[in-house]
Amino acid sequence: MTEPDQIIVTTPASSRVNLLGMTRSQLEDFFLDLGEKRFRSQQVMKWIHHRGVRDFALMTDLSQPLRARLAEIADVLPPEIAEQHDSRDGTRKWAIAVEGGSLVEAVLIPEGDRATLCVSSQVGCSLDCTFCSTGKQGFQRDLTAAEIIGQVWLAINSYDAWQSGKGRVVTNVVMMGMGEPLLNFDNVVSAMSLMCDDLAYGLSKRKVTLSTSGVVPNLDRLAEWADVSLAVSLHAPNDALRDQIVPINRKYPIARLLASAKAYLDAQTDKKRVVTIEYTLLAGVNDSVDQAKELAALLQDYPCKINLIPFNDFPNSGYKRPSGNAVSRFWQVLTDAGFVVTVRTTRGDDIDAACGQLVGEVVDRTRRSERHRAGRSDHTLVGSSEAR
Ligand code: SAH
Ligand code: SF4
């Protein structure tokens, strides 16, 4: 008797479920639905996030039939690294190709025994702050949770960390790349939960920072879902000026924003936490001594530290970075008023990785996207990292 040819039914990659962006509870549900024990999720999370393994066949503590079943219905699919650039100062930047051909960027900034990864949450941004190159690009789409946590996965894997035993490649994550995280609430919350989960990246909640320009209704509900550190992009000491440079202020003015951020802090168990106030210094716009004094008065008694960011220029921005003296004067007024004030040093300048330069000129970016789609690049092309 001849056996009939075996028909192998394979699920196309696009309809397989991507396990990379699933939180612990989502993965538990996934395995329960498969009729498996809940703890399978823990084993699989460790393979994916601790060891960087994507291939189910290598997950040796799962039974053979389960590995085969997973290979049929699921994937561990990070976005693809399109370009990788290393700066002279150790900063490493990736242009990351997400589905649909767009590029987003992630930047790793090493500093002593720390390394901070700056992560994007959206392709473009709808909020149109006048000094931001991402804003100039307009909004394209939200990143999925897998695309957000995938930036952490790719950054760590790009260092061969698992093999070299180099230790923790990423010690801090800031949601300060492209996009407004609070406008992609669910996916950002899921990704941040993986950043802090011991079965994934195990970062302390103090070392994960969400930065927002002030989407107040979503900030109001953030405490229900997350307890990470909070940074607020203020950039102006009064509503008249903020209305002009951060348009969302016309909807949610400064007083409402600061009250909402304070309520977020008050909901935390750690009562020593403060809000980081980000203030991008734009020459002749918001960098005068009088404006520093006005800012000091506004933030008097507010639980915060202040981070001054000298403007990072990009083509046709229409703004200028203040002189070193102007930055020092602004810093001095705030310091004399008793605030803890840091000035963000520009890193990765030679590779356009500095804050606000993540996109580069929009036209140039579009051309690069096209080149990438055509399979060419004028920079190092690094294939998607494989399982280790
Ligand atoms: N959308 C969020 C997070 C991304 S932007 C937010 O606005 O907070 C991260 C920080 O970089 C924000 O404080 C933003 O105002 C600042 N920024 C944007 N463009 C900049 C530029 N060209 N120079 C300096 N800082 C900039
Ligand atoms: Fe969007 Fe933030 Fe840029 Fe404003 S500063 S346009 S909120 S990414």
List the helices and strands and how they pair.
Layout: E1 17-18, H1 24-33, H2 40-50, H3 64-73, E2 74-75, E3 80-86, E4 92-97, E5 103-111, E6 114-118, E7 122-124, H4 133-137, E8 139-142, H5 145-157, H6 161-164, E9 172-175, H7 185-196, E10 208-212, H8 216-222, E11 229-233, H9 239-245, H10 254-266, E12 275-281, H11 289-298, E13 304-310, H12 324-336, E14 341-343, H13 362-373
Parallel strand pairs: 1-2, 6-9, 9-10, 10-11, 11-12, 12-13, 13-14
Antiparallel strand pairs: 3-4, 4-5, 5-6, 7-8
The site of S-adenosyl-L-homocysteine has 16 residues, from strand 10 and strand 12.
Strand arrangement, major sheet: 3-4-5-6-9-10-11-12-13-14
Q: Strand percentage, roughly?
A: 15-25%
Q: Can you list the ligands bound to this structure?
A: S-adenosyl-L-homocysteine, iron/sulfur cluster
Averaged pLDDT: 87
Gross morphology? elongated
Structural class: alpha/beta
Helix content: 25-40%
Major β-sheet, in short? 10 strands, mixed
Would you list the SSEs in sequence order as H and E? EHHHEEEEEEHEHHEHEHEHHEHEHEH
User: Which regions have little confidence, pLDDT < 50, spanning 5+ residues?
Assistant: 1-9, 359-388
- Report the C-alpha radius of gyration, rounded: 22 Å
The end-to-end distance, rounded to whole angstroms, is: 44 Å
Structure description:
The chain is α/β, with parallel strands linked by helices and 388 residues long. Helices cover 33% and strands 18% of the residues. The strands form 3 sheets. A 10-stranded mixed sheet has the order 3-4-5-6-9-10-11-12-13-14. A two-stranded parallel ribbon has the order 1-2. Strands 7-8 form a two-stranded antiparallel sheet. It starts with 16 loop residues before the first strand and ends in a 15-residue tail after the last helix. Iron/sulfur cluster (SF4) is lined by residues 125, 127-129, 132, 134-135, 179-180, 213, 233.
